Amino acid sequence: MDVIRARTAGFCMGVGLALQKLEAALQERAADTARICTLGPIIHNPQVLEDYARKGVARLEEPEEARPGDMVVIRAHGVTRQTEERLRAGGARVLDATCPKVKKAQLSIARATAGGAALLLFGEADHPEVRGLVSYAGGPAYVFGDMEALEALSLPEDRPYVLASQTTQDRALFAVIERLLRGRLPGLTVLATICDATRERQDEARSIAARADVMVVVGGRESGNTRRLADVARAAGIATYHVETVDELRPEFFAQKARAGLTAGASTPKSLIEAAEERLTSL
Ligand code: SF4
């Protein structure tokens, strides 16, 4: 079977860097390091997480679970300022693997709101990256996930405003929001915090789905960006299979299909993508 493999399949820059830092920490582990830990899952991929658990990486859910001397890796989408302080206060060493683009957004928000300006943040309020970004605001923060929520906000006019976005939001929609708010809030400061990795991956999945008979999306079932990628492919009207490993690829999925599209989420390792490509090619 012919396979069209997406160029954008697999780790984005931020996830790749975070895993490199964790690998380096494991290799250079100092004798006085009690444990190497991650705060929450380092990525949403069960196969990678099992591998790190086997290598002795402990997974903490709360900063207070860290013991003095532990090295705690902060994952790509970052944590709140307070979480980092709680880790350090407990005696842990912090290895900051926050994606450089998320870190830049955090620091831009801190600088732009240091004088007390209010932050208007376009994003999902309960997403860890958003909670982290909000914690860097020097004034009040308003988070909205869509136009309706934005229009429902009552914004006092006695202070300056700063508009920013969660890194994975849609750039076109953000431009519409910016135009609307510039009309309402003269002197609005707008920060460029969107990362195009997610959109590029979705655009490529859409384009491949238009040329394939069936689509395979590889990645963790808990991975939001992988699930959205499968939705994009399904919306193109072809049969789409979201699988975590190659063993889930059953030959009957591909009966009478000549060409398969293959993509993967930002947390899927290359080895799983390559295994899927090999299996599909052999069908
Ligand atoms: S999607 Fe972009 S901002 Fe988010 S971790 Fe990946 S590279 Fe960084």
Map the helices and strands:
Layout: E1 2-5, H1 13-27, E2 36-39, H2 46-54, E3 58-60, E4 71-74, H3 81-89, E5 93-96, H4 100-112, E6 118-122, H5 128-135, E7 141-144, H6 147-151, E8 161-165, H7 171-184, E9 189-190, H8 197-209, E10 214-218, H9 224-235, E11 239-243, E12 259-264, H10 270-282
Parallel strand pairs: 1-12, 2-3, 2-4, 4-5, 6-7, 6-8, 8-9, 10-11, 10-12
Helix pairs in contact: 4-5, 8-9
Radius of gyration: 21 Å
Query: Strand content of the residues, in percent?
Result: 15-25%
CATH architecture classification of the largest domain: 3-Layer(aba) Sandwich
Overall pLDDT level: 94
Number of domains: 3
Overall form: flat
Q: SS-based structural class?
A: alpha/beta
The level of helicity is 25-40%
What is the third-level CATH name, the topology of the largest domain?
Answer: Cobalt-precorrin-4 Transmethylase, domain 1
Q: How many helical elements?
A: 10
- Strand and helix order: EHEHEEHEHEHEHEHEHEHEEH
Structure explained in plain terms:
It is built from 10 helices and 12 strands. The strands form 3 sheets. Strands 1-12-10-11 form a 4-stranded parallel beta sheet, with helices on both faces. Strands 3-2-4-5 form a 4-stranded parallel beta sheet, sandwiched between helices. The protein has a 4-stranded parallel beta sheet with strand order 7-6-8-9. It is an alpha/beta fold and 283 residues long. It is 39% helix and 18% strand. The longest helix is centred in the first third of the chain and has 15 residues, at 13-27. The protein has helices at residues 13-27, 46-54, 81-89, 100-112, 128-135, 147-151, 171-184, 197-209, 224-235, 270-282, and strands spanning 2-5, 36-39, 58-60, 71-74, 93-96, 118-122, 141-144, 161-165, 189-190, 214-218, 239-243, 259-264. The chain folds into 3 domains: 2-10 and 196-282, 4-hydroxy-3-methylbut-2-enyl diphosphate reductase, catalytic domain (Cobalt-precorrin-4 Transmethylase, domain 1, 3-Layer(aba) Sandwich); 13-98, Rossmann fold (3-Layer(aba) Sandwich); 101-190, 3-Layer(aba) Sandwich (Cobalt-precorrin-4 Transmethylase, domain 1), CATH 3.40.1010.20. The structure holds iron/sulfur cluster. Residues 12-15, 76, 99, 101-102, 167-168, 195, 197-198, 266 line the site of iron/sulfur cluster.
